[in-house]
Every structure is written in C-alpha cells, then in structure tokens.
C-alpha cells in the first residue's frame, strides 16, 4: 500500500492530519495535499466539520442553560430580600433597628468589650435613622462573638 492510500485510510479511521504527518515524518501541508486528491477526504472533512459544529452548539446551549440557572438563583435571592424588606415596611411606617442593621451590616464593626455593633465612620456619613451602636443579644449574630 502506498503512502497516499495509507494516509487516507488513517484519516478515515479518525486520525488527525498532525498525527498522520508525525507518523510519516512529513509536514502537515504535504499530508493535506496528498489527501485532497481523494473525494473521500472531502466527504470526511465535511462530516467532521458538521460534527464539530454540533458539539459547539451543544456546548453553547449548555453554557447558556447554566448561566440562566445561575441568574435565576440570584434573582430569587434578590426577590426574597425585597419581599422581606417590603413586609417589614408594610407592618410599620418605620424599619426597626434590627432590620436597618441587617440591611447595612457591612457598615458596622463588632466591639468585644461593649458587646455591641458600632457604626464604622470610615464607611461614610451615618444616616440619621441608623443607630450609632446596637447591643447584640447572645442568640443573635453569633459570627461576631469570638
């Protein structure tokens, strides 16, 4: 069997052009030039192209699906927080200190000596409706107790 026929046989078995070139010790363009003489090469090339397009399409669809699910989870959390805040507002005309602090927890630091959350002035100017400090009950905000 000559080189050309052997190269075509390997290509039809699923070998890549680079693998065939290494096996024969010739360049990739030389292998391509040999294979272009056969109509089977063009058919196999088209088949591989369609197969790769289908794989890429499946991957894109899976990626979009994962992103959509991630977005849906984040959206549900935002809606849940919104509903809780709306419920807190609808019960009273004013938010309780606990709800305000929960919404602005990143602006507070825990003071171990006083067992209180104290507003961190480096976070910016404190709004008038936010308390300067709040006592922490033993059962609440355990992550601050060390």
Question: Can you give me a brief rundown of this structure?
Answer:
This protein has about 150 residues and is mainly alpha-helical.
Summary tags:
3 strands, 59% helix, 5 helices, mainly alpha, 3-stranded antiparallel β-sheet, 146 residues, single chain, 2 domains
Give a verbal description of the structure.
With 146 residues, the chain is mainly α. It folds into two domains: 3-89; 97-144, no CATH class. Helices cover 59% and strands 8% of the residues. It is built from five helices and three strands. It has a three-stranded antiparallel beta sheet with strand order 1-2-3, with no helix packed on it. A hairpin with a 4-residue loop joins strand 1 (108-111) and strand 2 (116-119). Helix 2 packs across helix 3. 6% of the residues are buried.
What layout of secondary structure does this protein have?
Blueprint: H1 3-12, H2 17-24, H3 28-35, H4 39-91, H5 97-103, E1 108-111, E2 116-119, E3 133-135
Antiparallel strand pairs: 1-2, 2-3
Helix pairs in contact: 2-3
Protein name: Terminase
InterPro entries: Homeodomain-like_sf (IPR009057)
Organism: Caldanaerobacter subterraneus subsp. yonseiensis KB-1
Helix proportion range: 55-70%
Kindly state the mean pLDDT as a whole number? 83
Shape: rod-shaped
Low-confidence stretches: none
Helical element count? 5
Measure the end-to-end span: 79 Å
Decide which structural class fits the backbone.
Answer: mainly alpha
Please compute the radius of gyration using only Cα atoms.
Answer: 33 Å
- Main beta sheet strand tally, sense and closure: 3 strands, antiparallel
User: Can you tell me the number of structural domains?
Assistant: 2
Beta fraction of the residues? 5-15%
Please count the beta strands (DSSP E, at least 2 residues each). Answer: 3
Return the string of H and E elements: HHHHHEEE
* Strands side by side in the biggest sheet: 1-2-3
